Amino acid sequence: MNALLQWAANNRPFLFFIGRFLITFFGLSILYALYLKYVELEGDLDLVTYWVSRGSHELARALGVADCEWACFMDGCYVGRPGHMVNILEGCNGLKLAIVYAAYVIGIGGWNWRSLLQMAVGLVVVQFFNVIRIGSLIALRDGGGDMYFYFLKYVFGVWIYGSVIVLWLLKPRIDRWLGQK
Amino acid sequence: MPVPQGVMGPLNPAVPLDGGLTALLIAGGAAGYRQYKKKKKA
Predict the structure, then answer these.
(1) Which positions ≥6 away from A144 have C-beta within 8 Å?
(2) How many domains does chain A have?
(3) Which residue in the set A104, A152, A157 is minimally distant from B32, CB to CB?
(4) Are A108 and B32 within 8 A, CB to CB?
(5) Could you tell me which of A4, A52, A126, B34 has the fewest CB atoms within 10 Å of its CB?
(6) In a 10 Å sphere around its CB, with 0-12 CB exposed, 13-18 middle and 19+ buried, how is residue B7 labelled?
(7) What range defines the domain where residue A133 resides?
(8) What is the ipTM of this complex?
(9) What is the pTM of this model?
(10) Residue A131 lies in a domain
């Protein structure tokens, strides 16, 4: 017990980081859950899923998916060629990953303009990676074969989670660019 | 507007990101610890 207290006393800044990290994560998650409840009551689809599916549709078309269709309903969007469509649900939109990234940024730097700027840029970067992930999956599904399932299960999982980890690792450098010591 | 019958199911698989969020939170904690250790040494 004494060893634990000693460790806590020696690592107080880290414990403050963990506190801010978790409080921000749960706070932003609750706000997002409230937003989802609101759009559900309105009989609408959340805007993040809408824009991610729209971006994925455009990317799939750019990747050569001819006659790529896009239809959104209350529970998500369907994108692709008839018979080869992908279902983009709220859980596919990547916002929860952006929330974890934002919680880390706030955990390290606190609530200031640099952290808010990095949160906004992080949201765009994670969604950019997510649109590439889903757009490519639509193209792979259109092409047929087992590659789609392999990429869905392994490659693009690493791709999207990796985008958050790379952003975290780049954070000290980004802080230096923004003039933070 | 309801989803038309026959559109859901294995014909149109979802592309979710489930399962990794807890692991990502733990990775975030580890990355933060690494950063504080570096700062402490400097």
Answers:
(1) A84
(2) 1
(3) A104
(4) yes
(5) A4
(6) middle
(7) 15-44+94-177
(8) 0.81
(9) 0.85
(10) yes
